[in-house]
Write a structure and sequence with these properties.
single chain; alpha+beta; Porin; twelve-stranded antiparallel β-sheet; 12 strands; 18% helix
Length: 289
């Protein structure tokens, strides 16, 4: 297990303060200046799971209300909304500095019988045919400003291979469809609940990029004021995140300072594991006077 993988698993191991009150670490995720949205979602889901027995999450719906401060912990307050015969519902509020930074509803379901169908996985080349994160670092290390180099070189827990990457410093206008392969090798050591937490964390990666592609934008351009506004995730099949998964994303609409994106997450054998939808802030950055 790498140090980055250990840090991520520690982030998901939240502390119980009271019966329905929990504390999670703020620092250590994908982004250093504010808490990565997937981290808050995963910790909120972890808090909800600590109040549920014998059921797995099938869906969650979250709103990001304020940016998270990575310098302090996050408090998670769980409301046990309903314990039904087949479904359990929880509401979780994430708090920093006495204010909400996220609220989330999550639903849990017993294993049930029914009909099955799914859309097929897109036909793309496998992960071994695409650049690694190390390839990405080597390509840009001598092209980015000095202040960006520590962030570029920082080890990450999730192994990512973009299918059709654009040059992040000089991106050309492109189709909104955006796919990547991802996994975390150390996930082979965790239980099904932690598998859900890891996928929830990773599901916030790459989404807003789809909305940028038709406009020739990237996070490195300095032109964007962007952030996740809300996030919905549906689990369809068991997660084995130590194996490669294809995250196929598209942005059917961007406008009025917002961008809507949806995604499908497939296991490498073609099983549709999860679906995602998100709206994000995407507007021009204010120029410094």
């Amino acid at each position: 297990m790498t140090e980055a993988e250990r840090i991520l698993l520690d982030l998901l191991n939240i502390e119980r303060l009271e019966v329905d009150l929990f504390r999670g670490t703020g620092s250590g995720g994908e982004t250093p200046t504010r808490i990565f949205g997937g981290q808050v979602i995963a910790q909120a889901l972890a808090a909800a799971y600590r109040t549920v027995e014998d059921r797995l999450c099938h869906s969650l719906h979250a709103y990001f209300i304020r940016p998270g401060d990575p310098s302090i912990p996050v408090i998670y307050q769980v409301d046990r909304a309903r314990d039904g015969g087949s479904f359990t519902t929880r509401r979780v509020v994430a708090i920093q500095h006495g204010k909400q930074i996220l609220n989330m509803s999550a639903s849990f379901h017993v294993k049930d019988d029914g009909w099955d169908h799914q859309h097929p996985m897109p036909d793309v080349l496998g992960p071994d045919n695409h650049p690694t994160r190390e390839d990405f670092r080597q390509k840009y290390i001598n092209r980015v400003p000095e202040w960006l180099k520590p962030q570029l070189l920082r080890e990450r827990p999730i192994d990512v291979r973009e299918v059709d990457p654009l040059d992040v410093l000089t991106p050309e206008k492109s189709d909104d469809r955006n796919s990547l392969w991802f996994r975390m090798s150390a996930a082979d050591q965790v239980d099904p609940i932690t598998q859900h937490l890891l996928l929830a964390y990773a599901s916030d990666m790459g989404l807003l990029t789809s909305g940028m592609r038709p406009h020739g934008l990237s996070w490195f351009s300095g032109e964007i004021n962007g952030a996740s506004l809300d996030h919905a995730l549906w689990f369809h099949a068991p997660v084995q995140f130590q194996n490669w998964h294809l995250y196929a994303m598209e942005s059917p609409w961007t406008g009025q300072g917002r961008s809507f994106t949806r995604g499908s997450i497939y296991a490498q054998d073609g099983t549709l594991v999860a679906s995602v939808a998100q709206e994000g802030l995407l507007r021009p950055a204010r120029k410094k006077s």
